Amino acid sequence: MALGFVSTLLNNMLDEITALIDAGTAGFLRIYAGTQPATCGTATTLLAQCTFSATSAPGASGGVLTHSAITDDSSADATGTASWYRAMDSAATCVYDGTVTITAGGGDLELDSLSITIAQVVSVNSSVINSNNA
């Protein structure tokens, strides 16, 4: 049988993610190509880096944490196919890793396209964590 948690506990656990990202100044996320390593393991090819809002997310509700607007990367670092990302605090300490898909693809982070070309603008459409993937 799967564990079941009351909504208050789920929201508190998700809000801790926000607290870790927001420690210091604004945190950021890095989008990578290649095989996703073990959580917070050695990263692969960095494609882009976007910045979270100063408050990366409002309080979780109903077991869902939806990040606030994420600032675009105005010039991608490399060319490749986005496959995973890492959320970090402002000191570049890993908070969590997740999957990348196209919009409505069901990934933790959604982009218009997984194909990224060096120097292009990279925009995040959605970044959501829920009790099923936290």
Tell me about this structure.
The chain is mainly beta. The chain is built from one helix and nine strands. It has one helix at residues 7-21, and strands at residues 28-33, 45-52, 64-66, 70-71, 80-88, 94-102, 109-111, 115-116, 124-130. Strands 1, 2, 3, 4, 5, 6, 7, 8 and 9 form a nine-stranded mixed β-sheet that branches. The protein starts with 6 loop residues before the first helix and ends with a strand.
Task: Briefly characterize the structure.
The protein is mainly beta. Helix content is 11%, strand content 37%.
As a whole number of angstroms, the C-alpha radius of gyration is 14 Å
Give the beta-strand count. Answer: 9
N-C termini distance: 18 Å
Number of helices: 1
Structural category: mainly beta
Helix content: 10-25%
**Overall pLDDT metric:** 92
- What characteristic shape results from the CA principal axes? globular
Major β-sheet, in short? 9 strands, mixed
Order of helices and strands: HEEEEEEEEE
Low-confidence stretches: none
DSSP strand content: 35-45%
Features:
globular; single chain; 1 helix; nine-stranded mixed β-sheet
Task: Reconstruct the topology from this structure.
Blueprint: H1 7-21, E1 28-33, E2 45-52, E3 64-66, E4 70-71, E5 80-88, E6 94-102, E7 109-111, E8 115-116, E9 124-130
Parallel strand pairs: 6-7
Antiparallel strand pairs: 1-2, 1-5, 2-4, 3-9, 5-6, 5-8, 7-9
